[in-house]
Write a structure and sequence with these properties.
Elements (H helix, E strand, L loop, with lengths): L1 E8 L3 H14 L1 E4 L2 E6 L2 H11 L8 E6 L2 H6 L18
Antiparallel strand pairs: 1-3, 1-4, 2-3
């Protein structure tokens, strides 16, 4: 299982809504433009990237940050609360 933090910065409202709706179908929104998405295979990750590529232009940006299990266990809020709860299961 691959878990990614997906963040975007898109200037056009219509394109931003399209990206947001697509990511909402794939994972869990954790902030306005930030999602946690789990993939069973690297080909699922590639497929999502392929769908997203045509939705960005110019200075727009969509980033995928890999979240390994050890890193997720160390992730905290500003109040030192654990972010990840294990085992994590996201049903898509």
């Amino acid at each position: 299982m691959y878990v990614y933090l997906v963040c975007y910065d898109i200037s056009d409202d219509k394109q931003r809504r399209s990206v947001s709706r697509l990511l909402e179908q794939e994972g869990l929104r954790v902030q306005h433009s930030v999602f946690e998405i789990s993939f069973k295979t690297s080909s699922e990750l590639k497929a999502l990237k392929d769908v997203l590529k045509p939705l960005i232009e110019g200075e727009d940006d969509i980033r995928f940050y890999h979240l390994c299990a050890a890193c997720r266990k160390k992730s905290l809020t500003v109040e030192d609360k654990a972010i990840a709860r294990f085992p994590l299961a996201v049903v898509i």
